[in-house]
Design a protein that fits this description.
19 strands; Serine Threonine Protein Phosphatase 5, Tetratricopeptide repeat; Rossmann fold; elongated; five-stranded parallel sheet; Arc Repressor Mutant, subunit A; about 1000 residues; about 65% helix; alpha/beta
Length: about 1000
Amino acid sequence: MVRVEVLGVCQAWADDGAPVELSSAQRRLVARLALDAPAAVSGDALAEALWGDDVPATARAALHNQVSRIRKAARTTFIRTLATDYALEAHLDTRSFAAAAHEASELLRTGSPAEAFTSAHTALASWRGTPYVDLDHVPAVTVHRQSLEATRYTLLTTRLAAAVELGRTAWALPEAQLLAAASPHDERRAALLADLLHRSGRRGEALSVIAATRRTLRTGWGAEPGPELVALEEQILTPLPVGRDASLAPFTGRDTELAAALEATRDGGVVRVHGEPGVGVSRFLTELRRAVVGSRGRDERTQVVLVRCASHSDTALAVLEEILDELDAPRGHAGVLADFVPAIATHRAPLVILVDDAHLAGPTTARALLAAAGHSGVTVVLGDRPAREGEPAGVELRLGGLGSEALAVVVRHRLEGKTVTDDATVARLTRAAGGNPLVAELLADSLPGATGEGDDRLTPLVDQWRARLTPAQDAVLEMVAVITGPVPVGLLSALTGTDLAAPDSLLELDPDQRTVRFRHAAVRDVVYRNISPGRRAELHHAVGEAAQRLHLPTAVVAHHRLAAAPLDRRAAVAAALDAASEATQLGAHADAVDWLVRASEHAAALGARELLEVQVALGDAMRLAGIPAHLDMLLDCAERAADAGHVDLLARATFALLQLGGSSDVGAVNARVARVTRRALDVLGDDPATAGIRAAASLAWSMTGEPERARELFLSAERAATAPEVRRLVLPFAYLGLGLPGDVPRRTALAEELVTLAEAADDPVALFEGLQLQVSTRVALADGAGARAALERMHGLIDLVGDVGRRWQLLYLSAAIAHLDGDLDRAEDLAWRALQLLAPVSPARAAAAFHAQVLALRLAQGRLGEVTGILRTLVAEQPAIPAWHAALALSLAHEVASGAPRDDDGGAARPDGTRAELEDHLRAALAHTTEDFTWLASHVMAARAAVVGGAGPDVLDELTARLAPHADLVCWQGTCSYGPVAVPLALLAVARGDAQAPALAARARALCASLGAPVFERELPPPR
């Protein structure tokens, strides 16, 4: 019978096995008949297959002629004519293909893996390309192709499963990697690959395959892995019995270090593991993971996560995101950085996070990992990352070389299946390896060949491997080394023009990502070092262009563009700016600084403006990261922009430098800041585009002797800000721009407006600032529940918007609320942390906030005497601030009332001298009549001082008159509260003998209750 094959280009074979010569039209005709065989096909359908939409008028005769020619070429009438229809009588390869798939599956199921492998392998050899490729224009072919593809899929999986059962690991492993990469949702293929990796002693990679498949199923299908994968994972994680499986690669010679690391994971904190390249840190972490899970006596709930850092991750937070995925942690809307530490803190303990190649983690990721390690029950194991300055050292383990006995075991395992396995060869390779297990493996894999000795054993071995490769394979190896890993196979194909048919022994495919990477980072380093600098730059340039063309992540593009900067500096700088912008959006400000520092190294060659543009962005990133040098850099950029006439850069630099508050000392504006700001406003004018700069400038003048200037700047900016996007920039500065007692209603309205605008625009930065305004205004209005709710929302946003200034804000607001709650120890701890955070950046502003908070705490604790010396210093340094005079007066008043005034050295002071000093500072506080944001605080403190110190009736009356209009407000002093104004008013009424004293006290108690602040109610006389 004639044989017709359509698993590729259509071809036919006569009864005697001779090929039937077919033209292209005849191939289409035979393929169309095969598509419906053995059923008949109408002449119209055949005409469509031959000519498509352009069927000639003579189609019937032409079709008959073609059939006749085919019969003549085949020397048989295997195409039958039925009136106007035709039918094919032939043996079709599609039928034998389907039959082989069923046969192979049955053979495997019934315990005949060798026959199953042969059957599947033979059938797959008949697959020559796209089925029915001659019929691409025929719609009906799609369904048939899908069915055949499904059959081939089954055959490939069956052949692989048979090879695994037969123990053909060397053949099966690369095949499994390719098949799993092509179908990441296939649990059967994933299980086969994981089983093969496990059999090869690569248990960590096996577990990674299972974890990756679990993630893919969850995210893609919302499903959990089936019993086969679950059982395999349990098998891999189960400790081996004493007579361990000989098919598994040994792990010996690390028993002491492994026991120490295992013990360290019980205590939590940071564990650091490092050693020379190739010594086996990655393998050690894999074994540690297995040991943690399998160790007896450990809490059965222990969860272990193993992740690997890359030299340029897709994003600055890719590692943190992978850890959250592994933990299946709930995700909020605030972003990865916001979710990470809270997710770790609330995760069921104990938890062990193993991070391989942790030295490649960016600064933001490193900081988050160390923060996670600070939580109870959490251990973070950092591979290849010794402690750096300022970081917790934790437990440190340095892996040295393996002993000769352990190394010999490694060599013997690698020699399995080779012809040379004698003791002399094992001894020779063991000596040559010098204790390095990677060198031992490569030496064993390289047999026969020179072993070489010396310090750099890897280079000759890698060169020996490369000598076996074709030029195309070697080009792939170099490209993977340049890209680092994991490398998308699509990118690799686009760059090399070839598909990676199977991984070389030095490379491996990742089935989850369909990527390729070096099995050993140390080998990758050798290959990379051996590429000449010029060629290396050219390769990076090609990768950068391809990555950009394929829309790969900005961090990947930037890494390669910068590595090839001499070839295209403009593209390198642009890519670094994009990567920095993305890092900033993620809240990874330190990573943004890193990108911009690298960009600035090349921007100078492009021109003065290009360099200035990068440096403005760098200064702003430094501000967000809390690096003190940001102010000088931004001032320098603003001055250079003004001199050069770059108005846009002048505006950006000025706005950035004004925001954090380091631009002013208490009592005076930084002279250079004032000069730059005035110059910018003169150049930029009063149009709405400058509203943000004017609003930010109000912050610079807010703590000076020019409060009118601060208010004027904010009000001018607020009037000019008409567009929603401009108002989102301007309104946050109402915090101090509208800081007077009478401004509370207007500030409240602006706070609500800002929150509404931010929510409408999905602007987390503006939302954070609006919530901060809400905390201050709700405290001022004695809405304690509302203030706490706004603060809680701020906590949910901080890691998304958390530059150093906003982290400082959140700390001091948290301290203020803890003070209201009466949790004074926690309030002081938070205030101290806030001081430490901001002091390097804005020492005057940080100190002012801290001292104001400590004053409130010492008042509540009855320990004002402890701060008398500090207050005298503050008064001497900042005599124009009335609040310091009032606070010192109150401290002195308590000393006078106690009858034991003390001098600054702790010795006894003359009571009359202390009283005189008290009266001097009280008068100084009252002499300040200009209202600014400290006015109310200075008066409520002065009122307390007057009452405690026994001031005269005129002072008591004056203070009562000044405070009475604000009786329903709570005093909010920028960073803390000094309580409801009704509290000192009630105390004044008692001291003056006013009949309204009980009513004022009741009013004060109601405000304290509404505020949720029992700390202030204790000052009031008991109710009658």
